Amino acid sequence: MRYTQAQQRAIDTRGRNILVAAAAGSGKTRVLVDRIIKQILSGNCGIEEMLVVTFTNAAATEMRERIEKALERELEREMREGKSGKRAERIERQMILLTGASICTFHAFCQQVIRAHIESIDVDPQFRLASDQEVSLLQQDVLERLFEEAYCEPEEEEARLAWQEFLDFVDAYGNEKGDQNVYDAVLRLYKFAQSQPFPKAWISAQQARYAWEEDRSIWDSPWTKIMADEALARLDSCLAAYSDCQIVRETESDASLLSAWKPYREWLDVQIGTVESVRAVLLAARESRTAKSWDNVHAAMQGAKITTLKASKKYAPFKQDFETLRHVFDARRDAAKQLLEDAKKKYFTETEEEVRAHICLTGRTVRAYARLTASFIDAYQAAKREQNILDFNDLEHGALAILCADSEAMQKLLAGERTNEAMECVRSEVARELQAKYAVIMVDEYQDTNSVQEAILDLIARETNRFTVGDVKQSIYRFRLADPALFQKKYDAYPEELEAVTRDQLITMRENFRSRADVLMPINFIFDQVMRRDVAEIDYDERSRLRAGFKYPPHAHSLAGPVELDLILKETEDAGHDAAVPEIDADEQSRSDVSWTGAGHVEDLAGFALEAQHIADRIASLMEEGYVVYDKDLGEVGGYRPLALRDISVLLRATKGKEGVLLRTLQENGIDAYSDADGGYFEVTEVRLMLALLTILDNTRQDIPLAAILVSPIGGFSMEELAKLRLCAVGDLYDALLASFGADSRLEGGLAARAAAFQEQLAAWRTYAMRHSVPDLIWKLYRDTGYYDYVGSLHGGVLRQANLRMLASRAADYEKTNYRGLFRFLRYIDNLKKRNTDLASARALGSDEDVVRIMSIHRSKGLEFPVVILADMAKKFNLQDAQGTFLLHKELGIAPKLVEQMKEGRQRYTTLSWRAVAAKIAAETKAEEMRILYVAMTRARERLILVGSMSEKKWEANAAKWCRTANCPDERLPADMVRSANTYLDWILPALARHADGALLREAGGVNEWHAGGAMKEKAHFALNLVAEHDVRKAVIAEDTANALMRAVREEKPLPASPARDWVEERLNFRYAMHGLADIPAKLTVSEIKRRFALLDAGDKSVPASFTLPEKRTEWRRPRFLQGEKGLSSTERGTLVHTVMQNLDLSSDTSFEGIRNQVERMAERGIIPFEHKNAVSIKGIADFARSPIGKRMRRAVRVMREIPFSRMVQAKRFFDTVENAKECVFIQGVLDVLFEDENGQLVLLDYKTDQTNDEARLRHRYAVQIALYAESIEEILGRKIAERYLYLLPYSTFISMGMDPSVGNYALT
């Protein structure tokens, strides 16, 4: 593939600082890789001399792989051509060095710097990176300790003022529930300050903003210009709105209309004059900046009044004869009046004296806020040092501390011009070393860097060795504190034309090799009109417009076509889209978007669920119509293949709640889909229930979790039974539970017994929780309750079990930190919920399968899809960052709302600084929303479909608003229209109203005459489709009607019988012929058989004739300290004796002393526990060695000890219920001793430690066991056992085990 001219320049240009403005799909990664390869192959620079910084680890890995493949291809070419000289050696060496090359993320590079120069900062060399969860817990702990200390009254008089300011601050901004709001405010300022090179210095500097001298002009404040500009913009909008009220033109031919309209035109002239006079006063004041100028503007703004159209005869003709026009005029007049009223409430509401007083009060609040946050930074750093951990912010700031030799001088440089010469004075020796090492510094996604990262680059860069790539139009990470202004500043300053006098160069890559022209031209058409510097921070100029760099081959069934905009007109209003968004205090409310959480049934198809169903219908139609997509990887040159589900992606601005609705809707329509959106984990039923159980194990006196467990499958109580339990006591629910089975309980016995059993189990779990880790507790709960198996049997059981495993895994991760215990784990989970850091629930399908992908726009960045459906276009922008109690801005500083204690309670009110910062943040938020829209639209390769919904009742009113500038001659939409947008539709539809394909919109908006625009409008094509809600309903109803099964489910009626019902029931009722084997074990040990016979002999009437073996209780080994205190049990004593006899050396000294010495050695070698050596019966063993049988064993030809054996035996011998004589059971055992004496006879021995020497009783007790041993050995060896003995060690007695006549009763002979 050939390079474009811009790409070639980006690859070849050297000796300059290069900024590549790479449009979406322009091949920037390819250019980066090829530039690296070319520099390597030229011999000018090796891979070890390059620093390549990427935005993600995945991007770094991909770049390494691309470079490696390119080097491999080059080496193969060298070998094919017979070249094996220095160039080939260099390539091989570069491939080896690639492994350790500095191709990484910024955080990874900073970590390398810290580890290589750890001695330069106060960090332990053995530090580790803390997880986000550990950081969250540690921050909370530090805050609690910090506040506890801060509340203590200081003894020093000079510290009392700061202490009092602290008390006033927490009293003003905390609440009756505690100080959590203040905690959150401190954390927010801390995190915001981390994007600054020197956080504490930045926080300290904010206090100086409010140190306002009396003789200093109010116009010198950093907030005044913002407010003046905002007020002017609002007044301009007001003037434009009153101009729109001029619905009758002077050129109107109807004389009666002109006559009736004349009084209205005169009235409008007066209103416009009023607004213009206020505007003139504001412009004059801003220019003069005199002492009284602020008050003049205040008086003019607050004194501006819009006169009403009083009941007068002169207004009657227009009202009576032209009623339709009068309604249009009234609507536009009211809108214009509202704009002025809003301006009066928002701008210049205070006198200069009041503003100065508020600045003083705000300064005191900011001092306390800044001081508290600075103290938190110190305490948090100390806590991290104590635990020997770092977080990701520490990596950047630690690296900066190593590279910067003079922080104060560096701060001054950051505020001014940073030339390489100026930076030289602040570079440390490490920075100079890195500067010498890296001949080339390349940064990908430069638009997403922040001030700290830029400072690091400045310190290690040479004069002309920076190559940065990005697209400011795709800077969408403001929430991560990325600063697109860094890119924009260089974009504006770097010349595009090659000039010898400059060291900098701008290269613009406009060609898009991803998308069809059918997609690119509409994108250009829209952003040409809305993306302007005064509103969106960026100009969409000639250098920014996208050009189609790849020409798709023609095909009859290709996806080529206009950009579609499907607007669903709802019969009912949806508050989430059409209602005004109330101002929400971001410090007191969740910072997430309000999500729709309705069901997907026909009767509930409203809001986003309606869009979801339409999207499902649209995808189904795309798949049915036989479209093909172009695949560049198909064959050598690419080709077309059928459209697949994996080619389609649905993008959402905010996925919370909505991705679940969309996913379910697609699946209900038979469309496989996958969502990789985070969140939703804590809301799934099985996780919520287990968290409720953990909560009551931590604290039983929590009614809601306890009630949830009681009526769940774990508790097993019905709602009626829960009500009965609750009435048992006056206190909380746990009191009622305890009283329910007490002596005074009036509950029926069964319910009371169940309540008692539940409480007993609860108490056991709580005891277990105190002694074991959280993951161990969770798995025990799964086992004891059977809940893990239960959810596995439900619909989606595999996913449900995966969610439960994730909970245990999350608990295990938590235990790896410095925190332990159930209480802290639950607190950690609560913190995750509060901070909206939900987890992703388990999923059945993977992203690499043939499924529709559902994702957020942010996740889609860097990806591309043949078909993109951008949904929820009418969603209102989230401006909560501009509505909190504490607003933060890099340039304007800290702006809090002020709090005043009044009789009615604590009241918060805004100030000049707060309103200025709020306006700035709102403007920046909307600018980023525009960039997010650009990113979303440029993900499409071949077809782009936009979907939104609104109330049908508001369609015409909205259309009229969007068509206000349909005939505007300017190339761009007016700034006030762009600025006032609240949804993506507020940008797209006003632009579409100026296009030939917007006829449907103009018709609804009442535009009777329209004049076509220029050539650009001819190249872009749109398809505007209005979809009625009942049309979507009809499709769903028709599908449900055809599916009787689904209809029965929805109506909660019995399902219709299947034609194969009888066949299914026959098979489900099938019973296997057990032949008496139902309760027969497959395997037995000799000891179990002996125990069975012992029970029968004892006359146990509970043992049936067809005997089922009693459950064998596991004999757990007691701890040694218990063995020492209480002596050995019979089982432990038997084990000890058998171990000694197994290891006894009969060929050595077998006297009493000899045996004792052998036992001592066994204890020393660890064969037996050292503390048990005195429990061994030395006499019994010595007597055995001296006995005739012992002597025969010493002289034996062969001795075998502890012989394991196993064999198959007829089951009928032990279980008379067995019908088939061929059925067998597997028996196994271990024989103590078998020896062959000098005469060739086999002798069987078994050691016993019974505390009785009743020979007859013992012979009968062990007859079956010895008989089975003998029979098994004889069958295995094919030889007869001549003698069989028991040896009783406590009594030094042998018992000959000739066959007991009673044994024959059990068919063992």
Topology:
Blueprint: H1 5-12, E1 17-22, H2 28-42, E2 50-54, H3 57-80, H4 86-97, E3 102-105, H5 106-116, E4 128-129, H6 132-150, H7 160-173, H8 180-193, H9 199-208, H10 224-244, H11 255-288, H12 293-303, H13 316-321, H14 323-346, H15 352-387, E5 389-390, H16 392-403, H17 407-415, H18 420-424, H19 429-437, E6 440-443, H20 451-460, E7 466-470, H21 484-493, E8 504-509, E9 511-512, H22 517-530, H23 533-536, E10 547-548, E11 563-570, H24 608-624, E12 628-631, E13 639-642, E14 648-652, H25 658-668, E15 673-675, H26 685-698, H27 703-710, H28 719-726, H29 733-740, H30 749-771, H31 774-785, H32 787-792, H33 797-815, H34 822-834, E16 852-856, H35 857-860, E17 865-870, E18 886-889, E19 893-896, E20 898-902, E21 905-909, H36 912-937, E22 940-951, H37 955-962, H38 975-979, H39 985-992, H40 999-1004, H41 1015-1019, E23 1022-1028, H42 1029-1042, H43 1044-1050, H44 1061-1068, E24 1083-1085, H45 1086-1097, H46 1120-1126, H47 1130-1143, H48 1152-1164, H49 1178-1186, H50 1188-1194, E25 1198-1210, E26 1224-1236, E27 1242-1248, H51 1255-1261, H52 1263-1277, E28 1281-1288, ...
Parallel strand pairs: 1-7, 1-8, 2-3, 2-6, 4-5, 6-7, 9-10, 11-22, 11-23, 14-16, 14-17, 15-16, 17-22, 24-26, 27-28
Antiparallel strand pairs: 12-13, 18-19, 20-21, 25-26, 26-27, 28-29
Helix pairs in contact: 1-2, 2-3, 3-4, 5-16, 6-15, 7-15, 8-15, 9-15, 10-11, 10-14, 10-36, 11-12, 16-20, 22-39, 24-25, 24-42, 26-27, 31-33, 45-52, 48-49, 49-50
